[in-house]
Amino acid sequence: MTDINQNDVAPPSAIARMFKNFLLIRESPIAMFGFALIMMWVILAILAPVLPLYDPNTPLEPFKFPLSAARDGGHYWLGTDHKGRDILSRVIFGAQTVLVWATLATGVAYIVGMFMGVVAGYLGGWWDEVISFVSNVLLSFPVIVLYIIIITYLGATGFNIVLAVTFASAPGIMRIVRGLVLDLRTRDYIFAAQTRGESPMYIMLVELLPNARGPLIVDACLRLGYTTITIAMLGYLGLGLPPPDPDWGKMIAETQPLGSFAGHMAVVPAAAISSLVLGFNLLADGLREISMRD
Amino acid sequence: MEQTPILECRNLCISYATRGGEIPAVIDFNMTVMPGQGVGIVGESGCGKSTVALAIMQYLGSNGYIKSGEIFFHGRDMRTMSEEELRSIRGSKIAMIYQEPMASLNPSMKIGEQLAEVPLFHEDVTRAEAMQRALELLEAVKLPDPKRIMDAYPHQISGGQQQRVVIAMALLSKPDLLLLDEPTTALDVTVERGIVELVKEISAEFGTSMIYISHNLGLILDTCDRVTVMYSGEAVEDGTVNEVFDDMYHPYTSGLFASIPLPGADKNERPLVPIPGQLPLPHQRPRGCFFGPRCAFFKDGTCNTDKVNMRSVTGQEGHTVRCARFEDIDWSEGDHAAVTVKSVKSGKVVLKVRNMKKYYEIRSSSILSMIRGDAVKTVKANENINFDAREAETVAIVGESGCGKSTFAKVLMGLEEATDGEVILNGEDLAHVSVQKRKARTVGHLQMVFQNPFDTLNPSHSVGSQIARVIRKFGVEKDPEKVRAKVNELLDLVKLPRDFAHRRPRQLSGGQKQRIGIARAFAGNPALVVADEPVSALDVSVQAAVTGLLTEIQNDLRSTLLFISHDLSVVRYLSDRVVVMYLGHIVEQGTTDEVFSPPYHPYTEALLSAVPIADTSVEQKQIILEGDIPSAVNPPPGCPFQTRCQRKIGSICETELPPMKEFKPGHHILCHLDEDVFADMEPVIVMHEKGEAVTVS
Amino acid sequence: MLILASRRFLSMALIMVIVSFTLFAIFESDKLAVAGKVLGPYSNTEQRELWLEQNGYNEPFLERYVTWVGNALTGDFGNSIQYKSPVADILWPRLGNTAILAGLYMLFMIPISLTLGVIAGMKEGSLQDRAVSIGSVLTTSVPEFASATFFSAIFVFWLGWLPGTSAMTGGFNWAEIFLPVFVLVVYGFGYTARMTRASMAEVMTSHYIRTAVLKGIPYRRVIMKHALRNALIAPFTVIILQLNWLLSGVIVVEVFFAYKGFGKLLLDAALFGDIYVIEACTLIAVFVAVFSQFISDIGYTLLNPRIRFT
Fold first, then answer.
1. Is A136 an interface residue toward C (CB < 8 Å)?
2. Facing C252 at nearest CB: one of A151, A233, A282
3. pTM here?
């Protein structure tokens, strides 16, 4: 303790506290590395319009290998594809697509899954029976079947992909949250809130959910990685977002048959996906390790 | 001829390697265990007592290590032994009994199998012989139906039985040394008594030496010849039990004794004296004496300079003390603020409980029970609860697990509805009004202090905001400025600095959290506060302070306190009236004096006999109850206590619920015993002073 | 035990009913659209009405559903629009091919991941633990379509050791099945390995392992007899439930290597709008998933005495 009169110390603001918590990831090199990978893609995606790149959809010179010189004096750093589009530009603009939709889809799935989980776990009884049964039904679909049905039935749009990811992920999130809540609800502070007559909504949102955040943040990172894979996979299978915007999965699908003489066309987007997913997975791993220490 | 000690620890230093560097857990520890001797290690949580035991077993985990010093077993340094030598000693020469019996047994292996492993791997026996030995040991630890238990999985038997299995496992190859690490902490008092008796009997029979680790001074007195008191990683006092208990020299030892409610303690004449402050964290230990900052006899320049060594007390060979100035201490000075419990005159009746019943229905989903038609079972958690509590009065509800005290608290707080009967608070019947339907004022008038300090506060919110929420919720204040002022006022009330409002619960110690819990309960000027084992999870030295604070505030505000506890010593010290519960029934109630002196209900009698008392001048009558507490799902017919009763008179106990007999106005006992049996009962706790027996309770 | 099995069985049947009903409602409640799919976009309304009449589509919805389920149970899934032949004739051979793929995957994945997981979890924080952990994070970060790209670039185009497609035109061929299985195992083993590691590490810090060690029984026996049994309960359920996720990888791999399997059939049907094939494939996929859940539940109960005897 210092000699400063503690009464004069202002309470730390919520933002300052969040920032301080965030700095904890410095404790884990793994988490830092993962975070750096993600940030690299995020920054590239944000800066894409102002970076000196060729237009991702304009055919220039087909089948150029990486580092080859362009007709206008520039370079195709990562080569061009079979239609002559600049791969570097397509990969960076492709990052925009995948980051936006993966974050959106995971976010929506989380909101739905968390709400289902906290209601099922805290209110119990019929709520639990119904929510758990619906989840079980959804979980009994192999995820890919769920995607195929929703997307062939409703069409391949961004919104439908968000919907499909929500249907596929929310039950899993619900199970995790429900499990956490079943444990947390036996704590004395929940009992205390009940004995002062708090409404179930207040208890669920203010007393329970904030305490479940640790494992959920880790899970959310993993799920972001998985959703990234899903979106790229749907693109690869021809169920992804409609053209012409670049999509990593579709880039692989289009150029994979040409691998025998221009392998880089598929390898580059494959490496892009892997690095982003690796970023999410490493961050999750590092965060879990940090949270286990306390 | 000099005997060689079984075990000797010399200048033992044990550390843990962490990210923040080395953390010394045990410093300069010495101990000698002679054949047949029982040595106790006593101390509060974090003092390093369990680390010593694990170091003796050479099992410190991946980050713990013995930094320096030696451990000799039969004269051989265990640190030089190979892994194979250690293996051959573990389980055969040194055996250990653990704190949590359930966790210590493999959940997916039959008990017989787990027991038989010991002889199979230490002696040259066949499987059949090993199983036979296991069965014999199960009989020796007095388990009912040992054949069935051999074939059972750990989760199929009760906690007390599990601990007996662990004891049997430890004794299977007749070890020379038995390590007991808080072996009864997880058990009920009456079950604990049985286990302790068993341990004493068996160690006497086999001549086994024991190291008994406990935070409970009473248990050490009961089981050991010598005792080492530990504080913050160091032994601070070491000697025979009589030397340390009657003629202690270290201020921490004497502080410890002053802070536990012994039968000799009295609200007025010998009040409890808490030790101020709290145990330092290992990396925040002060210079010199670790106890210095909390010590009433601290002397600048003496106590905070050099490392303090153990020194012998003159005239008492073998009695050593780690205090720089124990010879100079004048025990009459340096008085800490005592916990004073003023005798307050109780007022009008605040709470009236009449014929309250709470039944639960459990549905069994097995087809068999569906066929039999008993798919729905009724659990009678509370049966015919009747009692009153007056203004400013402290009423204790005493009982072990499954007695229904928690259910009663839930009904009172409105989290469950009573099945029948009335619960009247200030004239308002709340038995069937859930907390959601109660008025804010009513809710504020009836509050609770919870048991576990570690989850009484929500870890996600600051302390201040949690208190403020209560203030607004009870409609005490609405204006933000006034709410803040009230938060400060409450922090003052529980004697915590005001800046604690900005802190997070994890920055607080257990005792401080419990103080916040008390502040929260008293935010709405409650008429009645229910305290559910409010100090049982705290360290002994902190317990007294928190208990004192609770009763002081209650006295000042003239609130009624319902004190739920299993600890009869605290109850006797604090409460005005006592309600004893067993399996959902009130078996006895009356004023504290009436309940603690004859005539007793046989269960009260057994409870009093079971409580470990850390006072050499006290003699307790030995009553050991058979078996475990029956499950509330399947209670025995007739008297609830008949399966374990030491005074059972016959078939009437098994068939008829006993009548509630009134001995004095307000003193009731639920029992079939005859009047003259009650009249002949002798006091359980007798205190000897200057050679003559004086009854204190 | 029997009670539990029958209860699980009932819930399994209930889920199948709900799933099949939902499927039927999605794909066949709009009769005209069905006729349009079957007869092609250039058919006129009268032709469609006529087709509907002939094929019993004018019965009430529920009746049609019951008939449909009855047919499906006897193996009659209707005729494929794309291939103009009974769905069953195409489906079963394809399913067989996928079963080979999945079977080989399990054959390699299970021992690899369990061994690695146990080795890593035995000593938390050790070198082998870190190696397994980091290795499995790396491999689970590279989805099948990406790793297939990398591995074909290396083994097919650069080294020329393996064929790039697995159409099996000349009958079953080990060289052709190698890459698809390899790709699946590389992506799939990490999850189970990490699960096993976590479970093993938890068991190793448990008090009953401490009891076993301090009982003085040999370390080998502590691991084999006390730790493994308890540590493998969780991975067991995960392995079986993996079937659910495996299908995604199977589809990708089948598409990538042009392997004639069930996944490729489903995907092609979805892209073509071949509703009877989609229905059949989905029913089979869900049945396999639900049945594996059933097996996993029963197995979990059998492995765990704490649940078995209560």
1. yes
2. A233
3. 0.85
